[in-house]
Amino acid sequence: MEHSFRGLVVSAxxxxxxxxxxxxxxxxAAAFVLALRTRGIADLSLLRAMETVPRExxxxxxxxxxxxxxxxxxLPCGETMTAPTVVAVMxxxxxxxxxxxxxxxxxxxxxxxxxxxxxxxxxxSIERRPVLADSAxxxxxxxxxxxxxxxxxxxxxxxxxxxxxxxxxxxxxxLAEGTVPESLTSxxxxxxxxxxxxxxxxxxxxxxxxxxxxEGELAVxxxxxxxxxxxx
Length: 232
Description:
Layout: H1 2-38, H2 44-52, H3 55-58, E1 73-74, E2 80-81, H4 84-94, E3 101-105, H5 111-118, E4 122-126, H6 130-143, E5 149-152, E6 166-176, H7 182-185, E7 188-199, E8 205-212, E9 218-225
Parallel strand pairs: 3-4, 3-6, 4-5, 6-7
Antiparallel strand pairs: 1-2, 7-8, 8-9
């Protein structure tokens, strides 16, 4: 009888450990979302997506423990994984709706790609660095979003002759002031929107939104300062 009792105690202890381990990621994800809310991110769909998509899956392994912090993380090839608040500001400005066709320039880690898919977008993502493209695609598949995403490894600003029109275009980086590539704006559907960073002569970066009117005219507006690396 004593033997059985000890067995039950041990089993209960292991069950408690398993439950605690399962609880920790949920608690960390909840704290992550709460921190975003305190920084002014109030879009519930976006917050839900950022809680659901595990940023630690997309971060380099050595920085996985920092993935739920609001900081940029280094990636191979001298690139960076943009801080979550900046990602949230850009994705919110993009205004993703279910079923929209989205072109993403600069896949990076694949985290933003997964967020766009989680929000219901059908994403074509372009990354020019093969090392990043391969790694991002593996992570996107592991996160379960490969069916909503297509990927290409090439220069995203080069005109490849495609005739697809996109509802949304996201550029993950800062363009030089006054240089919105026609190779991208020509891909905007009527009523479409492009979001990117815009770097002025002093090096400061602000959020830039380009709207495509039904007749094809473009309207450019500038938003708040954000921290984004320049596109080299």
